[in-house]
Amino acid sequence: MKKVFDEVASLEKRVVKDFFLSEEILMEHASNSIFNYILKKFRKNKTILIVCGCGNNGADGLALARLLHKNFNVKIYIVKEPKSAMAKLQYKRAKSLNIEFVHNLFEADIIVDCIFGTGLNKKLDENIINLIASLNSFNSFKIACDIPSGIDIYGQIINIAYKSDITFTMGAYKTSLFSDTAKDYVGDIKLVNLGVHKDIFQIDADIFLLEKKDMVLPFRNNKNSHKGTFGHLNIIAGEKIGASIISSKAAFSFGAGLVTIVCSKEQNITEYIMQSRNIAQNCTAIAIGMGLGEIYDKNLEEILELNFPKVFDADIFYKPLIVNYLDENIVLTPHPKEFISLLKLTNIADISIEELQNNRFLYVKKFCKKYPKTTLLLKGANVLIAKDNKIYINSYGTQVLSKGGSGDVLSGLIASLLAQGYEPLNATISASLAHTLASKKYKKNNYSLNPNDLIKKVKKL
Ligand SMILES: NC(=O)C1=CN([C@@H]2O[C@H](COP(=O)(O)OP(=O)(O)OC[C@H]3O[C@@H](n4cnc5c(N)ncnc54)[C@H](O)[C@@H]3O)[C@@H](O)[C@H]2O)[C@@H](O)CC1
Ligand SMILES: Nc1ncnc2c1ncn2[C@@H]1O[C@H](COP(=O)(O)OP(=O)(O)O)[C@@H](O)[C@H]1O
Ligand SMILES: [K+]
Question: Where along this sequence does the record place binding of AMP (predicted)?
């Protein structure tokens, strides 16, 4: 996993102060990394339009223009006269090299957005809104320097934002790049080294970006085993049995030795999944909430009192009783609407879905502060997993997963690992990665995936 920071300016200052680098060295590294990328990826006859603002983001662009000049057909468009010292210096250098400055935007082969970086601090005026809209309308390959212009430090769009194919982020990953809103604007994200190794540049973090290698699949080590070795998951069925069936199939495919659906009447379910009226004697984990609908408090309480690891999903986030059971045994998998109900039940906040989506990191941190031992997975375009005041981002999911039943597969995968003895945070991280990475293996198109297709892909990880 990689470290992620809310702000990077203090890290830059530290490198200048403690390791005697200069702002100029950092900037040269920033522009050089984009230069090298363009040099490798594109032929030399391509036109490149670099759009520069008045601060150091613009200065990065002017330095980049200097590096690209004579290698490519480079044009600079100045949005606002250089204001920062570095922007003035880089402007002077670019001018002295006779790089062409243009006064009209055009559809270049490549556009590099260096209008605003982390310094964006107010609403965009009409001219800049129109300018970004024009850039977005061009069919060029679009690069963003540090962050797509128009996205603020909270990852929100103030008026409009540049839509890039790739973003070069300077020095460290920023949380703003991983808001759900930003996901349609950042494109691929590349981390740029600013002159010292990232382990020196970056201090301790409490937010992390998950990588494929963080996924631990439930491979079986010992040949001398039996079904009981791999746990017995009990899924509490509710009014909509389909949700439990999907979860049970996902759980079975992900290694649980036995899976039982606990239901009050006989159901027509998959033959290898067991069914029972009661929780099994040898149960090792419970999943509850998916398709639950109404349930008597007394019945719910009896289940919640059982001392097994549990996944709480879906309808359970509307039951006030659960707030008494949010301990280290519990994994919560709400989507945003369910999470605002949980925030209300726990007296943390009474907010709208929009307020949550604009501040996902903030409300996950608030929840974590009150319930540090519980594992939380907040669903979304970028999934946030949290425990012990640390947040883990899973950014691999895509719109292919926006389907009824995708969440039931996820809860089944997590519960399966819990049943097999994984610690709750590790179970949640590995299952969430398996869920999203499996979905990426579905290549037909991005609209037709169903839960069974997803489970098939999980089997092939
Ligand atoms: N500080 C350093 O050592 C480094 C800085 N770097 C670059 O510097 C950037 C940050 O530079 P700055 O702090 O100068 O900030 P920016 O270049 O992002 O923008 C700041 C300027 O834009 C103006 N501005 C902000 N919002 C505006 C709006 N809505 N409409 C009109 N004008 C607006 C501000 O008044 C300010 O003059 C980073 O994103 C990165 O690209 C990199 O070169 C790496 C090294
Ligand atoms: N656009 C998207 N990008 C990434 N992941 C998504 C997207 N849409 C949905 N998902 C994922 O799909 C799952 C949907 O779960 P949920 O909304 O609970 O559906 P259901 O309860 O019908 O199964 C979650 O894991 C969510 O993170
Ligand atoms: K930018």
Answer: 407
